[in-house]
Write a structure and sequence with these properties.
Helix content: over 70%
Number of domains: 2
CATH topology of the largest domain: Rna Polymerase Sigma Factor, Chain: A
Oligomer: single chain
Radius of gyration: 17 Å
Distance between the termini: 60 Å
Largest sheet: none
Number of helices: 9
């Protein structure tokens, strides 16, 4: 009986609602980390399969969001370090997923950043997380997040200045 009461109380965490609310965020983060549409789709599925195992323990809406981002980061890391990934070559790394052509140029450059800078820039600028939230999600120091953002911005500034965007 207690389990049904908990389930009713965490309606915000229900997997279907979480998928409807956060699937786009998870997919975009997976794409930013992998730069591959197929891998991003696989990660999206894996994230929500893992989430279905733990959703009843969610305490708040922010906890759900942070958990999904953390699972996405872990899944993309697992993919990058897998034997399968190490033995394959990607077909095209320069695919930009965006709605506006102007944003496409910037996003293309963001996708060229090293993974640690790309993740911090995406979470900060595209998803609107604070430095402390990013640090908590990625389980790193806030000063490390600031460094990643600073270095990522500097790399983008140089690249975009060269291309005169």
């Amino acid at each position: 009986m207690k389990r049904t009461v908990e389930t009713e109380n965490c309606n915000f965490a229900h997997p279907q609602r979480a998928f409807e609310t956060y699937a786009d965020l998870v997919y975009r983060l997976a794409f930013v980390r992998t730069k591959n549409i197929s891998d991003s789709e696989d990660i999206l599925q894996e994230v929500f399969l893992r989430y279905m195992k733990v959703w009843e323990n969610m305490q708040s809406e922010n906890h759900v969001k942070a958990m999904l981002i953390r699972i996405t980061v872990n899944c993309s890391y697992s993919l990058k370090t897998s034997a399968w990934f190490k033995k394959t070559e990607p077909l095209d790394e320069n695919i930009a997923y965006t709605d506006s052509p102007n944003e496409s140029n910037v996003l293309t450059e963001v996708l060229k950043l090293p993974l640690k800078y790309r993740t911090a820039v995406h979470l900060y600028y595209y998803q609107g997380f604070s430095v402390n939230e990013i640090a908590e999600i990625l389980k790193i120091n806030p000063s490390t997040v600031k460094t990643h953002l600073s270095r990522g911005r500097e790399m983008l500034r140089k690249t975009l200045k060269e291309e005169d965007l």
